[in-house]
Amino acid sequence: MVKDQDIQKLKGFREFLPGEMKARRKLFESMRKVAEKFGFREIGTPSLEPKELFMIKSGDELVQQTYSFKDKGGRQVTLIPEETPTRARMVKENKDVSKPIKWFSESKFWRYESTQKGRLREFYQFNYDIFGEKSVEADAEIIAVAVEMLKELGLEKAAEIRINDREMLEGILSTYGIEQSMVEVLNIIDDKEKMSQKEFIEELVDAGLSDEESEVVDKVTELSGNFEDVMPELEQLVPDSEESIEAFERLSELKELLDGYDVLENCIIDLSIIRGLAYYTGMVFEIFDKEGDLRALCGGGRYDDLIETLGGEETPAVGFAPGDAVIELLMKREGLWPEEEIETDVYVLNVSESVKKKSMEIARLLRDQDLIVEVDLSGRNFGNQMKYANRINTQKLVIVGERDLKKGEVTVKDMASGEEEQVDLKSLEGYFQ
Ligand code: HAM
Fold it and tell me: CA dist 92 to 45, 75, 110, 314, Å?
């Protein structure tokens, strides 16, 4: 029989103590602030969905990683591994919402991945999406949101946005005769960063490409750098097909708009960015730390067919999602992670039993000022209350004693400087403003 003390937390799942939660709340607040500044509105989504929702377009890899099971009604259900399919369904069902629809949310996700640095089985994402807008302006706004988020977190110098266009890359590859095994080739490119060059070429040959073709794929997907440098080279590679030329022109327009947002220096073109999820149709991007020792912080792109595939009206869409785990690792590495400490504005310390009621009254008065206030709940003596007040990082102590009360006063102590002051009870209410 399993004893209680043998039960441990599951691998890949985390729990957070109040100090850690405080720091995480700051992270999420920053992401929310950016969303609201750009006019994204918050939505709420279910954690459990019918399994088929993810079978349609998320791609095999993700479906393999889901926590799926039969519920008591015999339905195949899945704990959401991502939010994009749910959002697509919501857009399909809410036809009357005026477009463009700009939604954000903070949610928990589950993927049965092999756990490693920055990859867990339960994690959080913020999702930002724009629906009903095909223009490059929407792509540019999504990237501007991503850079603004990096700036808000202080990461704009440590991380960069790597952009590609799937349609353009497919066009380039098909001119080299790589049309038949395109899906397989794209999957191999998606894994390129995890392989050596030799392994990459071998995988392509295994997928049916000739040595020559494999080398072309390697060369093309090595192309990366800032827009100014890469665009002329790219222009030479882009084939004479309508889709590829259009994709290249969109990329040129995107460059101008990103310049307008003053975020061009945060972006580079990288032809190896594919995105594993199967629903992306055009521009795709990922955010990586510049030192390159962490997995992607964020991923996103354009997915113009998903809503139609789910049976809805033709609705172009573009969006991205930052994950909490890698961002935390990068912020810690850069010394930017918020302090993991709880805070207390005031601790009301009662010197004796006789002033307990008065202490509660003072605490209530101060809480009415929206201050974080604690009082003694355990009949502790002066010294122990003081110790506790220190442990909860109290800013100010209000010491309530019989002698002071007789004069209509309390003592207020500043915990940082140690300075004490007698304060009239009547003026206590405004004292902490
Ligand atoms: P994704 O690339 O699968 O995209 O995930 C986005 C981000 O979530 C990743 O860059 C990573 O930071 C985080 N993430 C993903 N899996 C894990 C994991 N197992 N552990 C920790 N963090 C993880 C999507 O999910 C798309 N639905 C994003 C999107 C929104 N595309 C358009 N709109």
Answer: 14, 22, 24, 9
Look up residue 82 and give its two tokens: 């991502």
Helix (H, G, I), strand (E, B) or coil at 227: helix
Tens digits of residue pLDDT in 178-228: 877 788 899 899 989 889 999 999 999 998 889 988 998 999 999 999 999
Q: How far is the CA of 404 from the centre of ligand 1 (A)?
A: 59
Ligand 1 atom at minimal distance to the Cα of residue 120: 20
What is the distance in A from the centroid of ligand 1 to the CA of 228? 29
Yes or no: say if 282 and 304 are a contact pair by the CB < 8 Å rule.
Answer: yes
| Interval between CA 335 and ligand 1 midpoint (Å) | 24
Interval between CA 83 and ligand 1 midpoint (Å): 9
Instruction: Tell me which CATH code domain 344-427 carries.
Output: 3.40.50.800
Phi, psi of 334 (to 5 degrees): -90, 5
What ligand 1 atom has the least distance to the C-alpha of 286? 10
Q: Tens digit of pLDDT for each residue in 215-231?
A: 989 999 999 999 999 99
Give the CATH fold of the 8-333 domain: BirA Bifunctional Protein; domain 2 (3.30.930)
Q: Quickly count: other Cβ atoms within 10 Å of residue 401's Cβ.
A: 18
Please state the atom number of ligand 1 nearest to the C-alpha of residue 300. 31
Q: Which of 31, 64, 78, 82 to mutate to test the pocket of ligand 1 (most atoms within 8 A of CB)?
A: 82
Residues 286 and 275: beta-carbon distance below 8 Å:
yes
Instruction: Tell how far the Cα of 119 is from the centroid of ligand 1, in angstroms.
Output: 10
CA dist 373 and 367 (Å) reads 6
Pocket test for ligand 1, best of 120, 125, 145 (most atoms within 8 A of CB): 125
Mean pLDDT, to the nearest integer, of 369-397? 97
Q: What is the per-residue DSSP string for 42-104? A: E----SEEETHHHHTTS-HHHHHT-EEEE-TTS-EEEE-S-SHHHHHHHHHH-TTSPSSEEEE
User: Could you tell me the end-to-end alpha-carbon distance of the chain, in angstroms, rounded to an integer?
Assistant: 58
Give φ, ψ of 340 to 5 degrees: -95, 70
